[in-house]
Every structure is written in structure tokens, then in C-alpha cells.
Design brief:
By secondary structure, this protein is of the alpha/beta class. The chain has 2 domains: 68 residues, no CATH class; 198 residues, 3-Layer(aba) Sandwich (Rossmann fold), CATH 3.40.50.410. It has 10 helices and 11 strands. The strands form 3 sheets. A 6-stranded mixed sheet has the order 5-4-3-6-7-10, sandwiched between helices. A 3-stranded antiparallel sheet has the order 1-2-11. The longest helix has 20 residues. The radius of gyration is 38 Å and the shape is elongated. It starts with a strand and ends in a 7-residue tail after the last helix.
Length: 332
Amino acid sequence: MFTNITFLHPWFFLLLLLLPVLAWHRFSSRRQHHTSLKMPTLEATRGLKSWKGELQKWLPVLRALAFIALVFALARPQRTLTEEVIKAEGIDIFLVIDLSSSMLAQDFKPDRLEVSKRVATEFVNKRQFDRIGLAVFSGEAFTQCPLTTDHRVLNDFIDGLRCGILEDGTAIGMGLATAVNRIKDSESKSKVIILLTDGVNNAGYVKPLTAAEIAKEFGVKVYTIGVGREGEALTPISRRSDGRYVFGLARVEIDEDLLRQIASLTGGRYFRATSARSLEEIYNEIDRLEKTEIEVTSVKRYSEEFYRFVWLAVGLLVLELLLRYTALRSIN
């Protein structure tokens, strides 16, 4: 019954010291109010015992037990439901994902964007104690989700990513600068940006290396990922008036030198993903590289248990009263 029980107000147990005082008072009062009958011998009454008389002796015990139960209730017992000691790694991470039309290329199945979204979601789910944000870019860039520990909301944003919601193009510098602007003021000891693109910078007014210099200035490490197979891939080459893309074979062009420079400048690494499996391995590698220990946190949840003692006290008092005035009633 007392497993994992703690008492919020243990000083109420001092009331138990009243029990011996009350017992002494009852014993003294009993001697003063009951006269004695002197008889020459008790031989005639030897062996005569009444079960009612024997049980009446225990009625004060029921009242004492009820008092003890009430004292326990006043001490406010609480049961620890869960106690979890967490020794976790927590850092701030910003995902920057390319939404240019080339991300619909079908060298990944069903396309690069869908695979990138799925793998990013799996990565987010592994980083339980991290704050993670999301920025997207094509010909322009914006913050889709600020840094948050609500990964369910973040995953909803990732799931909703679509090509065509921004002006087409590949503004790598704009995407990186947007993320740096969001993460630069973080108080986390480790700040990381994961930049994923499949093209060559051809838009935006912020140069990629300028954005990388700013990231370095604020202690932000950038991991860059180039997505796409070698050679040619079935990719959007134009767009119809109804918004649908026209696909054709086009050469896969990724500015790997630029992505390497960005990573090297900020202390990160460059990765090339040529398949869904290799992209998964890249995120797993980043997950292993970025571990920062945070303080141990103890999480406890309690359930109130005082009501059990209240009901026990009420039950004992009711039982004592019923016995005293029914089956064990005495005539004074």
C-alpha cells in the first residue's frame, strides 16, 4: 500500500502523539466513573465471559484506527506514478530544404522531394529533445517553422511542402541566410543547419558564401547535402498554363564545389545522396555527429491518495457507531 508513497505534509504525524494521552485520559475517566463492588469471593463467576463484553473492549481501538487514518489523510500521501531520469542530447537544428521544380525529378521514387520529406521526418523523430526549425527556398526563401520542440507540428509542415509555392529558381544563399537569421540568437551550445539542395545557385540577392560567412560568425555549423543521381534524370523542363509540369530528361547539375566550401567554412561536412538509402545514411551520420549532453532532468507525476485514508476513517467510525449502538449496546 505504501509503495512509492510520499507525504506532502508529514508534520501532521505529530498528532499521533495524542494517542497515548487520549488512552491515559480514557483509562483515568473509566476508573473515576465506575464504582467497584466488593464481594467475599469471585469463585461463582469464574469462567463466565460475555462475547459482547469482550468485543466492547475493542470499540475504542476502531476509533483510534479511524484517528490514525485521518492523520495519514492530513499528511497528504501521494503516489509517484512515473519517475524518469533523462540524460539527453539537445541542440538547435534548422532544416533548409530546396523546393525548386527540379526537386520533382524522378531519379528518386516517387521523386526527390517526397523522399527528402520522409527522411527529414524520420530524422526529426529521432531528435526528441532538440529544438528544430524549417526554412524552404527556391527562387526566394522563407521560414516555414521557427525553432520548436513540438515535433508533431514541425512534421505537419514538412509533410505539407510542395514545389511551386515560391518563384522557381535555386537561391541557396537566401535559404541559408534565412536559417542563419533564425538560429543565430539561440543560446544553445551547438547550432546546426542542414541544407539540402539538388541544383546550382541561380537566384537571390545573398551570395551562398556570404551567408556561410555570417553562419561562421555566429558559430553555426552547416551540413550540406546534394540530392540527385549522376547523369540524367526525368525532371520538369517546363510548365503548362494549368500549372502542371512537363517532364523530360535533363542532366543532373549540383554545384558540389560550392556546397563543400559552405560546409568547410562553417566546420560542417558535405554529403552527396544518390539514392533514398544513401540519404537516410547521411541523416544517420549527422545524427551521430551532433550529440550535445544537457542537464539531467527528473520528471515525476503524482496521484493523490489521501481520499483512501478518509474513506478508511469514515468506514471505521461508522462500524464503531453501528456496533456500539446495535449489537454491542450496553445499559449504563
